[in-house]
Amino acid sequence: MAKHLVLVGGGHAHLTVLVNLARVIERGHKVTVIGPSPYHYYSGMGPGLLSGIYRPQDVRFHVKKMVEDRGAVFIEDRVVRINPVQRTLVLQSGNPVAYDIVSFNTGSDVPLTGVVSQGRENIVPVKPVFNLLKAQHMIIPALKESPMNFIVVGGGPAGLEVTANLWRLVNRNSGNATIKLIAGRKLLGDLPEKVRTLALTSLTDRGITVVEGNRVKELSGNQILMADGSSHPFDVAFMALGVQPSRIFSDSGIPTGADGGLLVNSFLQSVAHPEMFGGGDCISFSDRPLAKVGVYAVRQNPILYHNLLAALEGRDLKAFMPQKDYMLIFNMGNGRGILWKRSFVYQGRLAFFLKDYIDRKFMKKFQVAGEVEERE
After folding, report:
1. Which of 154, 172, 217, 282 is within CB 3.0–4.6 Å of 240 for a Cys-Cys bond?
2. Can you tell me the distance from the alpha carbon of 273 to that of 254, in angstroms, rounded to the nearest whole number?
3. CA separation for the pair 247, 234 (Å, rounded)
4. CA dihedral 207, 208, 212, 214 (to 10 degrees)
């Protein structure tokens, strides 16, 4: 019996489904994809987009074209409410979309509530990734006018890479700027000390100030107010304060994890609504926490594709079994990278070349024909 599959978001975890939409449709099912933009930007290459290493068309998937070329329907809109009883989504436009099976891959946002009080125009959350491209377009002409103060807030991998690539953006445009990273308790505090030391040295050797052992209390106008009473002026502030899923699930009365993500079992399936699935940053596992890193969303791809098709046709689901370890490579904005996996740590050009190769290979696998030749 033909059913209606709705995909909300064209993120990393939905890419295998998107590539195989024609197969789903050939089996008699209808497919609708809902997203806020025709494009999805790959977060792993976001800092390089900011610095100019990559062009916009290098780091994005043309989701709308991917969907429509395979015979499915793309709706450029946002889901603002879910009615799981009636199996209906309500869009920002007010239009309803009914579903038999629905899957969410809506990513995450940077939490700003309680930190930003005013002056949002020059405050840039690092997610969604498109914000980094908008910031680049704002910064380049401003650098030609006068010296600038940049601050990055957040001591995790995103804060590190954005800081390092902001340095590259300033230097390749012959700008005069100070860059400061406010890293909270400790830069890369959850990673091995050797990784932390290499990252810290890489930044400070370039004249970047790293502030540790203090936290941001509030951003007001062009000032960052710290918990110890000190303040830091800025022209542009990048916010990399971790990530949080949309409130759409909790606001719709659907069970969520502690972080607000859709609470799922090992099948990437809602614990309360078996017709509801999800992947990537917008989900939380019922039996264990899982780091919000892109590698897990990528690895969920084939499992989610299998399970959505199985749910449409009443077949057995497969469990997602995340690997306990994964490789991290940081793009340090100077042609070098820092690689970490288990006890192995390496810094150098080879690390960046490896990251660049892996990222470009991933993009090539899912980009539509001719996409990299598109104009910005």
Report:
1. 154
2. 8
3. 30
4. 120
CA distance 125 to 237: 8
Provide the whole-model pTM.
0.92
Instruction: Give the chain's domains with CATH numbers.
Output: 4-36+77-108+243-313 (3.50.50.60), 120-242+327-373 (3.50.50.60)
Q: Is 135 helix (H, G, I), strand (E, B) or coil?
A: helix
Residue type, 127: K
* Eight-class DSSP state of 271: S
Handedness of CA 367, 370, 372, 376 (dihedral sign): negative
Contact 133, 47 (CB under 8 A): no
Residue 215 exposure: Cα atoms within 13 Å on the Cβ side: 5
Q: How far apart are CA 117 and CA 244, in angstroms?
A: 19
Helix H or strand E segment including 180: strand 177-182
Report yes or no: 285 and 258 within 8 Å, Cβ to Cβ: no
**Gap between the Cα atoms of 129 and 83, Å rounded:** 29
Q: For tokens 């009080």, what's the residue?
A: 117
Structure token pair of residue 87 = 């199996």
How distant, in Å, are the alpha carbons of 153, 259, 300, 305 from that of 126? 10, 18, 23, 28
Radius of gyration of the chain (CA): 21
Tens-place pLDDT, residues 271-319: 999 999 999 889 999 877 666 566 777 889 999 999 999 999 999 999 9
Specify whether the CB–CB gap between 243 and 109 falls below 8 A. Answer: yes
| CA distance linking residue 164 with residue 48, whole number of Å | 10
Counting every residue written for the chain, the total comes to 376
| pLDDT tens-digit series, residues 1-21 | 789 999 999 988 999 999 999
Instruction: Count other C-beta atoms under 10 Å from residue 114's C-beta.
Output: 8
Question: Residue 37, CB half-sphere, CA atoms under 13 Å: how many?
Answer: 11
